[in-house]
Amino acid sequence: MNFFKDQTCAAFFSLKTVLFLLLAAQVLIQASVHGQALRVYQEGDSSTYAGARLTGQLWMRYNENNPGTLINGQETPAFFDISIRRVRLQTYARIRDKTNITFTLGQNNINYLSARSGEIRLLDFYVDHRLHKFLSVGGGQSGWNGTSRYAAPNTSRLLSLDVAPFMIPTVNQTDNVLRKLSAYIKGQIGSWDYRWIFGRPYAPVENTRISSNSTFANAKPGIQTAFYLKHHFFDKESLHSPFHQGTYDGERKVLSLGMGFERQSNAMWHLNAASDTITSPISLIAIDLFGELPGPGDNALTFYSGYFYYNFGPNYLRVIGFNNVGGGLNEQGSFNGTGNAWPAIGTGHTAYVQGGYLWKLKDRNEKIQPFISGQFSRFERLQDPVTYIEGGINILMKGQASKITLAFQNRPVFDYSEQGLPLASHRRSCLILQYQVRLE
Prior knowledge:
It is a single chain. By secondary structure, this protein is mainly β. The chain folds into 2 domains: 1-36; 39-439, Beta Barrel (Porin), CATH 2.40.160.10. Helix content is 7%, strand content 53%. The protein has one helix at 2-33, and strands at 39-42, 45-64, 70-71, 74-75, 78-95, 99-110, 121-132, 135-142, 180-189, 192-200, 215-216, 224-232, 254-271, 277-294, 300-311, 317-320, 342-346, 348-360, 367-379, 386-396, 402-416, 422-439. Strands 2-5-6-7-8-9-10-12-13-14-15-18-19-20-21-22 form a 16-stranded antiparallel β-barrel. The longest helix has 32 residues, at 2-33. The chain starts with a helix and ends with a strand. This is Porin. Residues 1-31 form the signal peptide.
């Protein structure tokens, strides 16, 4: 009897969530159609207001699967699918120009494997308060992160199709879709801005079996500290949101140099030669440069480059595939694992570059923006380097509010040698068509 009661309650609350999201989406769309700002001001006081935004990304994809990939128990060398890469519904409020409140519901990677468990969940709930023009304090579950610019990426304002996995190195491991329970301070002083975060990470979800290769420890975690300092050479970027934009659609002149770190004690463990358990910290550092330089007319050059050194302990390596639809492996499986996974994050050095050029089509409102990005990593556990390439074109029909992206991704496949070592053997590709909507 309790089972049916619990199921009925769950269905009721799920229905309430769906109805709430549909109603919110209808309000957002109606306001957008009529050119209204999705914001309500307190009567007679524009310093106090509340607003909302809705973003979503739909994918159609053809993926060359890793060797031995199983889908519904059947070996599948390639696969076409339709999925929801991201959906977000955010509400926010500002009180007297000093206090900000943010609340976000959303989910990632709703595909044929996850649709029945792809419930909408809480992503953000945090509050910050400005104590001084140079200092604000805040806390809650949020995307305030350090290390590099795209440790906190604005995923609905990217230059490339998607964020590189290594930029968010603990995603869905000790965080919640890169959000963490944390307190932070932030501010802008002249042409500099800073953020300093103190977080309590979630318990790791990765297999924490101990071996000679470092993995996340099933032990009491230390406090996670992250810091990011940035210098603006031209226009200043907003520090209101934790998330950095990948492009400004040619509307601003930006050049910023950043540097940051992240550290957490007792985060990892491994066995030494004497089979003793050794715990070690996570220690990450990065330096990066972002620029968007407007050209003639509405044209603009956008670029990003960075150097990253990650230390997760000896031989740590994470194989990850975003929005993965692989359901398992047979005996032909490789080190990469199933679907579109590849060794993207690990102890070692990484260089990353990204570039694109935006121009407006003659006698039309649309803009096009071809782009290319590349990751080159030397991970401690692998003898061969990891190179990952993504290129494509954005068609901005109404800026980021209505955008189509066609992207090509090419990844390495690592297989085991006769000695049991992972070596680069060949490459696989993926073609993705994305439609993005952003209403705010």
